[in-house]
Every structure is written in structure tokens, then in C-alpha cells.
Design goal:
By secondary structure, the protein is mostly helical. The chain has 19 helices and no strands. The protein has helices at residues 2-15, 17-22, 27-38, 53-73, 76-81, 84-109, 113-122, 132-135, 142-170, 177-202, 213-232, 236-250, 252-280, 283-287, 291-312, 320-328, 334-343, 351-370, 373-378. The chain is globular and about 65 Å long.
Length: 403
Amino acid sequence: MLLLSYAAILLVAVLVSALAHRTILSTAALFLTAGFVLGSGVLDVIDLRPDDPIVSGLATYALFAVLFTDGMRVGWPDLRAAWRLPGRALGLGLPLTLVITAVLAHYLTGLDWVESLLIGAVLSPTDPVFASAIVGNDKVPGRLRHLLNVESGVNDGLVLPVVIVLLGLASGSEGQLGHVLAELAGGVAIGVVVPYLAVKVEATRFFRAWGPYEALNAVAIGLLVLTLAQATHANLFLAAFAAGITIATVGQPQRESFEEFGELVAELLKLAALLVFGALLTPAFLGEIPLGGWVFAVLAIVLARPLALVIALARSHLTPREVAAAAWFGPKGFASVVYGLLVLDYALAERDQIFHLVGITVALSILLHASSDVVVARSFDDPGETPDFQGEAPRPNGTGSPA
């Protein structure tokens, strides 16, 4: 029934996608809501539990695909071309979001500091898919779109080592910290070496991808990275992210040929995972969340990220409207869902509470952000503002000064 439900909802999403593109209707929210309605306690069509193999398996492969394609958006040339604003968001905004979220978790839910920092790390990554009307709207200033796109493409990979280390500390396995770090280092090594060698081999005069096989080149690299990481017990997710960045840096043809196909595959997996995630948010699950948990979820969305970004982007020469849009559009995305599921694999005293808090925060974020992106994007429909791409302040004649 899960596959049948997914196929039917996917068809509905395709048919209403044009309407969703110009209204507050959201395909992400559609899959999340459909999962809830079809799940246990409502229609009972999809019966899933967090420890079911299909949940962890789908989440793992979906996040691998998402991190692989995210990495391809942000090769080193892209980061060097316009790094100031994304650098502020990642270097200052991301740690501040983590810390503010942790403080809220500690005082509102009673979690200890290590577990509070863990939930702060889990909820720090953002996802541009739930703010697609902003990122994909040419009327939105290019520097704002670039900021949100690069930040969301990088922050889930950056925060992953922090999540893994904090999981080890929270579960009392500090003695295995060296092993955890070795897994992370192994993931980076595989993610760099395998794509680099594959790209260089194709560049020789003996080998060349042809026609429809060009898009499969990056697919083959990704599958090789995945299987090698699994065989060596290296970290899959960091390997995926490093592989995407490596291809974007040294394999521009492979990046371009894979881009459209890769985005579609990642989107299909992500929507399937959202359907499953929605099915986990049963009425019983929501009923187990205390009032403090609901207050935390709301403040994590409306306070933690906005306050952190306002501080990080101070004196950046962005307009107040651009700062407000960047601060608001920090949707808790798919990475947070998977990192929350990772918590269930560790022997944490409060793992169920952490997963409940992550689940409700992500769900509320998807509903709020995915339904408000069109409204905010339309606020930029002002022909008088034409700031350039490199983070410059708009002037009436369209010129500006460096940020």
C-alpha cells in the first residue's frame, strides 16, 4: 500500500504543480499531510514505525542522494565567486542557530546540555526545496537566492560531524570517539578520491562518455562511493557530500550532464521520505508531546534561526527586506528528519523525546515555510530594485557597493 499511495500522491502532485508554483499550495506539505492522513490513527492505510527497516533504508538512501546533489551545487569555484554572504550565514549564523536552539531545548524541555546541543545540531540544517519560490524566482535579488541556495546546500554536510560526535557523547560512548572520527575521515577520503580519479580517467584520450551515458557517469560515481563507504564502514553521508563537491570542482561536464537527472532522483526520494515521515506523525505521536515541546518547536522556527541570521547579516548591506527573507527562510529540511532518525539508533536516555521534538519542529516548519515562500517572493516584485549577484546594496540605478 505504501508504493500505491506514493504513486497516487505523486500523480496528484504533478497535476497540481503549476498551481502550487504560484500559490501557497506546496507539494512538500502535500506529501507530509497525505502521510499523516493515510497513517495509523487516521485512515490506517500506511502502518509504519520509526524502527521499521523501510524507514531507515529510505531515509538513508534519500539523504545520500540529497547530499550528493547538494554538494554538486557548491563546488569550490562557486564558493570563491561569492562567498561573503554565505560565509556569514554558515560561519556565524549556523553556530548561533545551534546554540539558541539548544538553549531553548534545555530550558523548555528539560534536556541536559549535551542532548540540547544535539537537538540544536539536528535542527540547524535548512532545505531550499521548502522555499523554492524564493530560490527559483528571478525577481528575487540574485545575492539572496545565492545566499539561501549555497547555505542550504552546505550546512547539512557541515553539521553532520557535529551530530555524530554529539550522539557519541550523549550515548556515553566517548571512548569510541576516535572510531567515529575515523569513519568521518574515511567518508571524506572516499568522497574525494573516487570522483577525482573517475573524472581524471574520463579526461584521458582512451575514455569518453557518450550521449545518454553522460548523465549516468555521475550516477556510477555516486553508487561506487556509496558501496565503498558501506564496505569500509565509512560515513555514507559525508562521503556523498564530499563526492558532490569534488565533481563540482574538477568535473564540470559531469556536473552539468547530471544536474537535471540528479535533481529529479533526489526529489523523488525526498518526497517518498516525506510521505513516510508524515505517516510516523500519528495522532498518538503528537499527543505524546507536552506543551513545552510545542512551545519549543514554535520558538525554534520563529526565534532561533531569525535571530541568528539577523546577527550574522548585520552590516552586510543587505536591505531590511532581504535580511528578513533570509532570516525567515531557514526551513528545517530533510536532513533534520534523517538526523532525528539516527538518534533512535543510539542508546540515549531521552531519544524518544528528542525524536518527538525533531518531528514536530520539522513538520511545523514544512507547513509554515512551504506555504509562505510564494507570498514572500511576490514582495520582491519591485522593478526599482535590481541588486547585483555579488552581494551589493541596491541603488535606484541598479549599481551598488561591495558588501
